[in-house]
Structure formats: C-alpha cells, structure tokens
Amino acid sequence: MYPSYGFGFGSNWLLLVGLPLIIALWAQFRVSSAFKKWGAVRATSNVTGAEAAREILTAAQIHDVDVVETNDYLGDHYDPASKRLCLSSKVYNEPSVASLGIAAHETGHAIQHAKAYAPLQWRMTIVPITSIASRMLPFVIFGGFIFHMTGLITLGIYCYMILLAFQLITLPV
Question: Cβ atoms within 10 A of the Cβ of 149, count?
Fold first, then answer.
C-alpha cells in the first residue's frame, strides 16, 4: 500500500502535521527568546507597558478601552468584544523594551478597532469559524491518518485552509 512509519504515520503525515508543528514550535521559540532578551533591557523612559498603553490610547483619543492585567505568559491581546487590552503581568508592570513594544502593538489593535479598520472587521467575522476549525484539526488529521479515512484527511485539509485564510487576513491586522 503506502510506505509508513507505523500506525499510519507516513510521509503525508510528516508533511501535513510534522512540518507545520515544527514551524510553529520554532516561531514560539523565537518569540519567547526575543521576549526574554528584550524583557531584560530596561526602557530609559522607565514607563511600564500599562502606562505606555494608556498614553497611546489617550493620544489616539480612545477613552473607552480598559487596560487590564492577565496572568497568561505572553497572553497579551486586545479583546474587541469587551474593549479590553489584556497585558501579561510582566508587560503590564515592568518598564522593559519588550513590555513597551508588546503594549504598543496590542494598543494598535484597539486603534484599528476604533477606526473600523476593514481587515480587523473581516478577522472578527471569521473568528468563530477558525475557533471551531482549530479545535477539530488535531482529531481530524490524526483520525484520518490512523484509520486511513480519506474523508477525514480532506476535512483536515479544509480546516487548514480556513486557518490559512485567517492568518492571511490577519497579516495587516
């Protein structure tokens, strides 16, 4: 039939699952390394990420966004539904170069939301679909390869396509 490495994990599995997994792990390592490096460099302004975010929001005349602290390591994000800018504890409290960069980046999303930036609106529209696709993907792909069910593999490819579209739409966001 097809050459495989056991349990149906052949070259297709390595290409469809292994390669994206390696790329994702590499990207996460790069982000963590950069945060660790620049998190140790104190900002000469001595301004924390939370203070910088509030200053940027004020300068953009945005007064209805709350800046809050979250305990998630590198879990910084802007939530357009609740108009909350969530900064991890280190970013929120520390005056490092990394904190300022991350806070400014996330504040940029709040500004995009306030200005009704079209790609952000598109992103918000497809978030529910991508959430479902990302939860289904591991089970669909593994199930398809383990049980040799091409229908599941095809569904997995469609899930990947949805997630790819999401990533492409969010590039300018």
Answer: 14
